[in-house]
Amino acid sequence: MLASRTLGGEKLLDTVHAHAAEGDVRFRLVVPQSKPSAGLLIYEDAVRHAAQVRVDLALLVLAEEGIQATGEVGDLDPFAATMDAIAERRPHSVIISTHPANHSGWLRRDLIERVERASGLPVQHIVTDLEREGLPYHVTLVVAHKTSSGEELMERLREKAAADQERHLFIAVVPQQDGSGTAPGEARARLVAMLERMRADSLLCSGMIGDPDPFTATMNALELFTVNDIVISTLPNERSGWMRSQLIERVRGATAVEVEHVVVDLAQSPTAANAANGANGGSGASGGSGGSGASAASGAR
To answer: What CATH superfamily is the domain 10-132?
Structure first.
């Protein structure tokens, strides 16, 4: 099964259910990497981890639907990603999900016909128009750094999940502090602590670290993922560099998606303060890794 931005579309889920009902069927999801256009520099591993977030969330959703599947991140070229997986997994058939023809780069490159000719396998093409159909669940993008484990933020995310009658997914993005060698490890530690807290609250979530510029990190995420709303968490105004740079207003001006601002006062939030201290303490040990992006998934079922 090959999909990227159309993952989670209702037609694709219905197709998977129909195949699962046939009996002993195993699914392997392949998500090709996809570079966002925003930002002057997009690190290769950050691009890969963004695709891994898609894999993580899709597997969580399928598991909640009672469907067991495995997944992997594929090549930037969707044809190469498909053929690599076919060579390794030897499937009996292929499902490819795309946008409608007028919005699909994959279809402009004749992906369906090329896979059919090269593999000799039956290829089922699912067209998903997310702009018209939407997603069968709610997706919230959460952007935070020092306040990523703040109780005020966690309480708001719990409230949002509880208020939704449909399934609610959260995508966390933790921008790096700066461009230093220790910044990826420090941001990664914050991300892990944040996802652990969300998992403890039974929230379905995955996440990645982002560009040091929080605006670019947010815009990259909006290009990579279809979301219903955004939550940005900062320190109180006078202590927040993000607020001084007018981040909330800039994001609101750049997207039609609803943007909510949650303030976390570390002086009043010992959990967040402890997590921040732990991240700072652990960044030196992690900073030696050359990676500039990381993803993780968690879910309680």
So the answer is: HUPs (3.40.50.620)
CA distance 264 to 271: 11
Return the SS3 of 269.
coil
Distance CA 28, CA 36 (A): 25
> What is the CA angle 222-36-78, rounded to 5?
115
Q: Do domains 10-132 and 137-298 have the same CATH topology?
A: yes
- Which among 116, 163, 118, 121 is positioned nearest to 140, based on CA atoms? 163
pTM equals 0.83
Fold of 137-298: Rossmann fold (3.40.50)
End-to-end CA distance of the chain: 23
pLDDT along the chain (301 residues), means of 10: 90 94 93 69 70 93 91 95 96 96 92 97 94 86 96 96 89 93 93 96 94 92 89 92 96 97 84 57 38 47 36
